[in-house]
Amino acid sequence: MKKIKRIICLFLVLTMVLTGCSGGTNSEPSNSDGNNSSAETSSEEAKKDHLTVVMKADVRSFDPIFGNDVAGHQVYDQIYETLLKFDEDGNMVPSLAESVTQVDDVTYEIKLKKGIKFHNGEEMKANDVKFTIYRIASQPCDIHYLFADVDLDSFETPDEYTVTFKINKPNAAFMSYLAFSTVAVVNEKAVNELGDSYGMNPVGTGPYKLVKWSKGNESVLERFDDYHGEKALIKNITIKVVPEPTNRLLELESGGADIAYDIAVTDVGRVEDSDKLQIGTKDATSITFLGFNTNKEPFNDIRVREAIRYAIDVEGIVKSVYMGLCPPATNPMNPSCLYYDKTRTVSEYNVQKAKELLAEAGYADGFTTSITTDERKERIDMATIIQNQLSQIGITVNINIMEWGAYLSACYDGQQEMYMGGWTTFTPEPSISLTGTFSSSTMGSGGNMAFYANPKVDELLEAGIATSDPAEREKIYLDLQKEITEQCTWVYLSYGIQTVGLSKEIQNFTVHPSGYHTLYDVSFK
């Protein structure tokens, strides 16, 4: 048998280092004779037992398999846990599992830790893990594609803490799927009893439990005192939805929030200059791009897509919008991924070539179209510059700015023509990034919002997970990046940065490169 540490090295060799934020000093409030009054002490203690966070968008669902986006992870990662997890060195280690063994090429055995409780008081057992994996593998959901090859008839639970199952063919990436926070272990009894309302009433094993959700407004979490690990340091957390980055910063500056996610890059200096705040930044494991809905004319014509790519000054846009904090993108996946092609350069800016391609495609006089985007300032700014640049080749662009949930719904349904998109990876495993965004099996909510289908890409994606040989995998993923880039389904714009503003009272906050920040280690000074 091959135990987990031996398996990990087959396909996880890239380290993701998480960096924390430095804090400032804090003085205790005092009364006139220099001693703390009991009222002030009580007030201070209450304040330090309640954390307020502001974020840009609300959770779509607290059922993780139907809420696979950054906003969802930022909240429900406090509530749920996975069988495996990544440590600070990027290695995969047990979490809820005591061990995960790859018995042979297609068989997995999971042994669970004992005594772990769900928020409803139930102990986590083998039936919950079987139910969790079976549920993802057997129905349409955001991450079905990761478990589509699970043999649904193969599950066995030889005892209350052991689960075995098979997949239909070897998959070198499969173990890493068990560490994805969307593959959180759920309680079978709770899901079955709550039915369609489970997405509003989650039951996990994590350090916090949900006590209130005011959709579109806020989520209120409370420390789970029966948590099996180290208890969360702060008792209560309120996570508020504040779409506008300027308003999130104002909340932070006024003391209405202790932590603000996604500070606009133009405001980073303002936070750094404040004597009451601190900024946390980290190169993100994400990519931002302009996507085309290839199901719609004229974007089903590669010449039109290429013309638009030539008409966009990527380096100029990224420098203007991100002020030098982010590099321009050159590939369909983030540089943190294994087998990233370092030889590629930023797409060429050539207006004349763009005009020639448009004329060749029958659009010498241009056409009118739209870009759909969410409310993130940087994406709106990019769309605005692209709107101006495309006017130089006769393309008139309208910009549709939508609230995050509405934006996702529109793009999942294929309503968009062009769209400002982003993709974040939680692991160096490249198959997850490229399958989610370019496989014909993941159109819509699976992540392929370009509705792009290419048999060659599908074949290469299958080949990439079928072998564990690093040299073979590298060749496959280099070929994939080449094919995807040549088909021009996206115009690669920038790699990301995580920017988090914090009160100087906050300590032990770690900026996660995926944006899936955890809060249970955070405390006040």
Rounded to the nearest angstrom, the distance between the terminal CA atoms is: 47 Å
**What is the strand tally?**
20
Structural class: alpha+beta
Tell me what the CATH architecture of the largest domain is: Roll
Q: Looking at this structure, what is the CATH superfamily of the largest domain? A: Dipeptide-binding Protein, Domain 3
Low-confidence stretches: 1-35
Average the pLDDT over all residues and give the rounded result: 91
**CATH fold title of the largest domain:** Dipeptide-binding Protein, domain 3
Look at the structure and give the CATH class of the largest domain. Answer: Alpha Beta
Q: How would a textbook summarize the main sheet?
A: 10 strands, mixed
Number of helices in the DSSP assignment: 17
Question: What does this 3D model show about the protein?
Answer:
The chain is α+β, with helices and mostly antiparallel strands and 525 residues long. The chain folds into three domains: 4-11 and 80-192, Dipeptide-binding Protein, domain 1 (Alpha-Beta Complex); 45-62 and 198-283 and 498-524, Periplasmic binding protein-like II (D-Maltodextrin-Binding Protein, domain 2); 284-496, Dipeptide-binding Protein, Domain 3 (Dipeptide-binding Protein, domain 3), CATH 3.10.105.10. It has 17 helices and 20 strands. β3 and β4 form a beta hairpin. The two termini are 47 Å apart.
